[in-house]
Specification:
Layout: H1 12-44, H2 54-57, H3 62-71, H4 87-103, H5 113-117, H6 121-137, E1 141-142, E2 149-150, H7 151-162, H8 184-193, H9 200-206, H10 209-223, H11 232-237, H12 241-303, H13 313-354, H14 369-427, H15 433-451, H16 454-468, H17 483-515, H18 520-533, E3 540-541, H19 543-553, H20 559-569, E4 576-577, H21 578-589, H22 595-605, H23 622-631, H24 641-648
Antiparallel strand pairs: 1-2, 3-4
Length: about 650
C-alpha cells in the first residue's frame, strides 16, 4: 500500500521525538559541563579525584562529600563509609553528603539519597547546578541597595558593563544564550581585562564564529587558567544558559578577584596617599606657625607702645619709614603667610572630616587655625595703632622743625638783603684814593662777615634737619624759603663781593701806580708777569714764587739777598701783593730795561740770530720760555724777538 500523500504537516510522533532528542542533547551537554566543573574544583584543591559520569560516580556519596569538603571547608565532614558495598551503606553516605550540602547553605528541595542512588540524572543535574549556582553565581553582588543586582542578574550586569565599550562593534549582551553564540562577547570580555592576550579586532577579522570561539577558549585555558568547561559547539548552539553561566562565572571569579586585588591596592594607595597629603600639610603648618608667631612676638615688642626717649624729626621720620615699610612689605607678606597657614589648617581638618579620620589636634605650643585668626586680627590692630601714633608724632616734629626753619630763613633773608645793599653802596663809591681804600676795606669786612656768618650755618643745619626728616624745603612756606635758592643767593653774594673787591683792588693799584709815576702800560705789563707766577691765583707772591719771578725777568739776586728783599715788599703772613709788586718792579727795573740792553740780551740768547728758537729758550725759566713762545711773533725760522721788544718800549 503506497504511503499517504505529504500535506506539509509534521507528525506528532516526529515532533515529540525531536524534542526528546534536543532535551537529551542538552542534558548530555549539562552533564559534560558539570563533570568538568567538578573536576576543576578538585584540581584547584590539589586533589586527584576525578569524575567520569555523574550518574555512577556520585552513587556512593563519597565524591559528593569530597566535593562539599572542597567547596565548603567550614562545614564539618561527617563520618562515612569509605568502602560501601550494600545499598544501605550507600544511602547512609548519600544522606550525610546531602546534610553537608544543606549545612553549606544549598537548598536540596526535591532530591533525596534514593534519587541519586537510582541514577535520576535530571535531579542529579539539578543538585550539581544548585551547588554551582550557590558557589559561583549566588554570591555575586553588583552595587548596593535597591539598585544593586545579584545572582544571575548580577552576573549579566557585570558582563554588560565589561563589554559596554564594544557595543558599537555589535556586542550586546542580553542573555546567556544567543548573545554569546558568535564568540565576540567572549573576545570583548577577555580583551577588556587582558588586552595583552587577545585582540578583539583580530577576532572579529577571523569572520567565523567557530574560529573566534575556539581561539577564546584556548586563550582562556592556556593564559588565564580558566577550565575548559565547554566545547566550541556548546557555545555556538547556545541553547542552555546554565552551562554558559557556569563558564562565564569562571571569568567573573577570575577577573573579580583581580579587580578586588586592584581595588585593594587602590584603596590602600588612597589611604596612604591621603595620609601623605595630610602629613605634608601638617608638616608645612607646624613648621610655618612657629615662624609666624615668633615674628608676631617681635612685632608686639616693637609696635606695642610708641616710646620716644629724645624727640626729633629724624627719629620721627625713621619711625615713620619703619612703619610704612612694615605696612607696605613685611605686614603684607606675613598676612599672606598667615592666610596660607589658616588655609592649611582648614584643609587638614576638611580632609579628616571628608575621609572619616580623627580631627587634627595641634601639638603643644602650636596655635590652631582659629587662634591664628585671632592673633592676626590683634596684630593688625596693634600695628595700625602704632602707625597712627607714629604719624601724629611725626606731624608734631615736622611742624616744629618747619617753624624753626622758616624763622631762620626769614632772618637770613633780611641779613642778606642788608649785605647786598651795603655791597651795592660800596661798589658805587667813586673818588680819590683814600675813598677807594675805605670802600675796599669795607668790602673786605663784608666779605669776612659773609665768610664767618653763623646764621647761614644754622639755617643750613635746619634745612638739612628737615630734609633728613623727609621734608623738602620747597614744601615749607613760600618759594623764597627754598634752601637751594638761598644757597644760590649766598653764592652769588660771595662772588659779587669778591668781584667788586678785586675790581676795587685793580683801581687802587692803578691809582697808586699813577701816584708813583708808573705808566699804565707798565702796570699792565707787570700784571701779566705777576699772573704768570701767581699760580694759585691768590693775588700775592710767596718767597719761592718771588725768586722765580726775579730770575724770569732777568734780575740777578743771590739766595742771601732774596729773603731780605722779599720781606721789604711783603705783607706779613700774606706775601707780596700786586701793588707792592708794581712798586718793586718800577724801582728795580728802570736802570736795566733799556731797549738796547734787552735787544742785546735776546740776541745773545739767540746766538746772534735775528730770531730765537724754542731750543734757544731752553736755558731760561720754563714759564718765561712759555710766555715768549706764546707772545713773540712767529716767523719762518723761529720767533721774532726784535719786533716784540721794540713794541714794548717808547
Amino acid at each position: 500500500m503506497p504511503p499517504p500523500p505529504n500535506d506539509g504537516r509534521v507528525s506528532p510522533d516526529r515532533t515529540m521525538n525531536e524534542v526528546k532528542s534536543l532535551a537529551s542533547d542538552r542534558q548530555q551537554r549539562q552533564e559534560a559541563t558539570f563533570v568538568r566543573w567538578v573536576n576543576a574544583a578538585f584540581k584547584r584543591a590539589g586533589q586527584a579525584d576525578k569524575l567520569e559520569n555523574l550518574s555512577s560516580d556520585l552513587t556512593s556519596g563519597i565524591n559528593l562529600i569530597k566535593l562539599m569538603k572542597v567547596l565548603c571547608p567550614d562545614v564539618a565532614v561527617p563520618n562515612y563509609n569509605k568502602n560501601p558495598k550494600m545499598r544501605f551503606a550507600l544511602m547512609e553516605n548519600l544522606n550525610r553528603a546531602l546534610e553537608m550540602v544543606e549545612e553549606g547553605g544549598i537548598k536540596t528541595v526535591g532530591i533525596g539519597a534514593d534519587n541519586i542512588a537510582d541514577h535520576n540524572m535530571m535531579l542529579i543535574l539539578g543538585l550539581i547546578w544548585s551547588i554551582i549556582y550557590h558557589v559561583r553565581i549566588g554570591k555575586i553582588q553588583i552595587g548596593e541597595g535597591k539598585d544593586g543586582k545579584s545572582g544571575r542578574e548580577g552576573l549579566l550586569f557585570w558582563c554588560q558593563r565589561q563589554t559596554a565599550n564594544y557595543e558599537s562593534e555589535g556586542v550586546k549582551v542580553k542573555n546567556f544564550t544567543s548573545s554569546w553564540s558568535d564568540g565576540l562577547a567572549l573576545a570583548a570580555l577577555i580583551e577588556n581585562n587582558r588586552p595583552d592576550l587577545l585582540s578583539f579586532q583580530g577576532m572579529k577579522a577571523l569572520g567565523k564564529p567557530q574560529a573566534v570561539v575556539a581561539e577564546c577558549i584556548r586563550v582562556a585555558e592556556e593564559s588565564l587558567e580558566v577550565p575548559r568547561l565547554l566545547e566550541v559547539d556548546d557555545i555556538l548552539i547556545a541553547d542552555d544558559e546554565k552551562v554558559m553561566m557556569a563558564y562565564v562565572s569562571e571569568f567573573y571569579t577570575l577577573f573579580a578577584k583581580q579587580s578586588q586585588a586592584q581595588d585593594a591596592v587602590r584603596r590602600a594607595q588612597r589611604f596612604v596617599q591621603l595620609e601623605m597629603k595630610v602629613a605634608d600639610l601638617v608638616e608645612q603648618y607646624e613648621k610655618g606657625v612657629p615662624d609666624f608667631t615668633m615674628w608676631a612676638d617681635g612685632v608686639f615688642k616693637e609696635f606695642g607702645t610708641l616710646e620716644v626717649a629724645d624727640p626729633s624729626l629724624e627719629d620721627a621720620w625713621a619711625k615713620t619709614q619703619r612703619a610704612e615699610a612694615f605696612r607696605a612689605n613685611e605686614a603684607k607678606d606675613k598676612t599672606k603667610q598667615c592666610h596660607h597657614l589658616i588655609h592649611l589648617y582648614d584643609e587638614i581638618q576638611l580632609n579628616c572630616r571628608t575621609h572619616n579620620r580623627k580631627k587634627y589636634e595641634t601639638p603643644e605650643g602650636i596655635l590652631t587655625g582659629p587662634e591664628l585668626k585671632h592673633l592676626s586680627s590683634e596684630l593688625t590692630q596693634k600695628a595700625w595703632d602704632f602707625i597712627r601714633a607714629v604719624r601724629e608724632y611725626y606731624d608734631r616734629e615736622k611742624t616744629k622743625a618747619a617753624a624753626q626753619y622758616v624763622s631762620l630763613v626769614e632772618e637770613l633773608n633780611t641779613w642778606m638783603k642788608s649785605i647786598e645793599g651795603a655791597v651795592m653802596r660800596e661798589a658805587s663809591t667813586a673818588g680819590d684814593q683814600a675813598s677807594m681804600e675805605k670802600s675796599h676795606a669795607q668790602l673786605a669786612e663784608l666779605q669776612e662777615e659773609v665768610h664767618k656768618q653763623d646764621l647761614f650755618k644754622r639755617t643750613q643745619e635746619a634745612a638739612e634737619h628737615l630734609q633728613q626728616g623727609g621734608v623738602p624745603t620747597h614744601t615749607v612756606g613760600g618759594t623764597h624759603h627754598r634752601w637751594d635758592e638761598m644757597c644760590w643767593r649766598m653764592e652769588t653774594l660771595q662772588q659779587n663781593i669778591s668781584q667788586k673787591k678785586t675790581c676795587m683792588e685793580e683801581e687802587l693799584e692803578q691809582a697808586k701806580a699813577q701816584a708813583a709815576g708808573v705808566p699804565q702800560e707798565k702796570v699792565e705789563e707787570y700784571r701779566e708777569i705777576f699772573h704768570v707766577f701767581d699760580e694759585k691765583k691768590e693775588n700775592c707772591l710767596s718767597l719761592s714764587q718771588f725768586g722765580d719771578c726775579l730770575k724770569g725777568v732777568g734780575i740777578q739776586v743771590s739766595d742771601v739777598e732774596l729773603e731780605p728783599l722779599y720781606r721789604r715788599y711783603a705783607v706779613e703772613g700774606v706775601g707780596i701783593p700786586f701793588d707792592n709788586f708794581i712798586t718793586f718792579m718800577w724801582e728795580n727795573t728802570q736802570d736795566v730795561e733799556s731797549k738796547e740792553q734787552v735787544m742785546q740780551s735776546f740776541r745773545s740768547l739767540a746766538k746772534d740770530k735775528d730770531f730765537i728758537t724754542e731750543e734757544d729758550l731752553s736755558s731760561v725759566d720754563p714759564a718765561v720760555s712759555l710766555f715768549c713762545i706764546k707772545h713773540f711773533p712767529r716767523g719762518p725760522h723761529g720767533f721774532d724777538y726784535s719786533t716784540f721788544v721794540a713794541s714794548k718800549f717808547l
